[in-house]
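Appendix B. Chain record.
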Amino acid sequence: MPLSNAERQRRYRQRLRAKAAGANVVEQARIAVERAVLALWAYHERPGPGGVQWCNIDGCHTLDQYRSELERSPANLIQACRAFFPGFEGLTPDEARTVADVIEIADALRLATPTSIHIPDA
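C-alpha coordinates predicted for this chain:
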Protein backbone atom coordinates (compact mmCIF):
# COMPACT_ATOMS: atom_id res chain seq x y z
CA MET A 1 0.00 0.00 0.00
CA PRO A 2 1.54 3.32 -1.05
CA LEU A 3 2.08 5.97 1.57
CA SER A 4 0.03 9.12 1.50
CA ASN A 5 1.81 12.42 1.04
CA ALA A 6 1.05 13.32 4.66
CA GLU A 7 2.59 10.05 5.90
CA ARG A 8 5.74 10.60 3.79
CA GLN A 9 6.07 14.11 5.19
CA ARG A 10 5.56 12.84 8.75
CA ARG A 11 8.29 10.22 8.33
CA TYR A 12 10.59 12.77 6.72
CA ARG A 13 10.15 15.13 9.69
CA GLN A 14 10.81 12.24 12.11
CA ARG A 15 14.08 11.43 10.31
CA LEU A 16 15.11 15.09 10.41
CA ARG A 17 14.42 15.30 14.14
CA ALA A 18 16.32 12.07 14.77
CA LYS A 19 19.27 13.30 12.73
CA ALA A 20 19.29 16.65 14.55
CA ALA A 21 19.23 14.81 17.89
CA GLY A 22 22.21 12.66 16.90
CA ALA A 23 20.19 9.46 16.84
CA ASN A 24 21.96 8.16 13.75
CA VAL A 25 25.51 9.20 14.60
CA VAL A 26 26.82 5.63 14.86
CA GLU A 27 25.24 4.62 11.57
CA GLN A 28 26.64 7.76 9.92
CA ALA A 29 30.12 6.88 11.22
CA ARG A 30 29.77 3.34 9.87
CA ILE A 31 28.74 4.70 6.47
CA ALA A 32 31.71 7.11 6.48
CA VAL A 33 34.10 4.25 7.29
CA GLU A 34 32.63 2.03 4.58
CA ARG A 35 32.95 4.84 2.03
CA ALA A 36 36.59 5.35 3.08
CA VAL A 37 37.36 1.64 2.72
CA LEU A 38 35.90 1.71 -0.79
CA ALA A 39 37.90 4.86 -1.62
CA LEU A 40 41.11 3.24 -0.37
CA TRP A 41 40.32 0.10 -2.37
CA ALA A 42 39.72 2.19 -5.52
CA TYR A 43 43.17 3.70 -5.03
CA HIS A 44 44.58 0.23 -4.37
CA GLU A 45 43.27 -1.00 -7.72
CA ARG A 46 45.23 1.68 -9.59
CA PRO A 47 48.84 1.00 -10.58
CA GLY A 48 51.38 1.80 -7.89
CA PRO A 49 54.77 3.47 -8.26
CA GLY A 50 56.46 2.50 -11.48
CA GLY A 51 53.28 0.85 -12.78
CA VAL A 52 53.42 -2.08 -10.34
CA GLN A 53 50.00 -3.23 -9.15
CA TRP A 54 49.44 -2.65 -5.41
CA CYS A 55 48.13 -6.21 -5.05
CA ASN A 56 51.59 -7.44 -6.07
CA ILE A 57 53.09 -5.25 -3.36
CA ASP A 58 50.77 -6.08 -0.44
CA GLY A 59 49.18 -9.35 -1.56
CA CYS A 60 45.57 -8.13 -1.37
CA HIS A 61 43.84 -9.21 -4.58
CA THR A 62 40.23 -8.74 -3.49
CA LEU A 63 38.27 -6.19 -1.50
CA ASP A 64 37.65 -8.85 1.17
CA GLN A 65 41.39 -9.48 1.57
CA TYR A 66 42.02 -5.73 1.76
CA ARG A 67 39.24 -5.23 4.31
CA SER A 68 40.67 -8.12 6.35
CA GLU A 69 44.06 -6.37 6.43
CA LEU A 70 42.41 -3.17 7.63
CA GLU A 71 40.44 -5.09 10.30
CA ARG A 72 43.50 -6.95 11.59
CA SER A 73 44.49 -4.03 13.79
CA PRO A 74 42.29 -1.14 14.92
CA ALA A 75 44.90 1.40 13.81
CA ASN A 76 45.28 0.08 10.24
CA LEU A 77 42.36 2.03 8.77
CA ILE A 78 43.44 5.30 10.38
CA GLN A 79 47.05 4.75 9.29
CA ALA A 80 45.93 4.01 5.74
CA CYS A 81 43.84 7.20 5.71
CA ARG A 82 46.59 9.34 7.25
CA ALA A 83 49.08 8.04 4.67
CA PHE A 84 47.38 10.33 2.14
CA PHE A 85 47.50 13.39 4.38
CA PRO A 86 48.16 16.31 3.81
CA GLY A 87 47.91 16.44 0.00
CA PHE A 88 45.74 13.37 -0.73
CA GLU A 89 47.87 12.65 -3.81
CA GLY A 90 46.46 9.92 -6.01
CA LEU A 91 42.89 10.24 -4.73
CA THR A 92 39.99 11.85 -6.52
CA PRO A 93 38.39 14.78 -4.66
CA ASP A 94 35.47 12.54 -3.59
CA GLU A 95 37.85 9.83 -2.36
CA ALA A 96 39.92 12.45 -0.53
CA ARG A 97 36.80 13.80 1.21
CA THR A 98 35.78 10.34 2.41
CA VAL A 99 39.28 9.62 3.70
CA ALA A 100 39.39 13.05 5.39
CA ASP A 101 36.06 12.31 7.07
CA VAL A 102 37.55 9.23 8.77
CA ILE A 103 40.59 11.26 9.89
CA GLU A 104 38.26 13.85 11.41
CA ILE A 105 36.14 11.17 13.14
CA ALA A 106 39.31 9.59 14.55
CA ASP A 107 40.46 12.97 15.87
CA ALA A 108 37.08 13.50 17.53
CA LEU A 109 37.19 10.07 19.18
CA ARG A 110 40.70 10.70 20.52
CA LEU A 111 39.66 14.16 21.79
CA ALA A 112 42.52 15.51 19.67
CA THR A 113 42.67 18.98 18.24
CA PRO A 114 40.85 18.82 14.90
CA THR A 115 43.21 18.36 11.96
CA SER A 116 43.08 21.22 9.48
CA ILE A 117 42.22 19.48 6.22
CA HIS A 118 42.19 21.02 2.77
CA ILE A 119 40.91 18.86 -0.08
CA PRO A 120 42.58 19.84 -3.35
CA ASP A 121 40.35 20.40 -6.35
CA ALA A 122 40.52 18.06 -9.32
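Further analysis of this model is presented in Appendix C.
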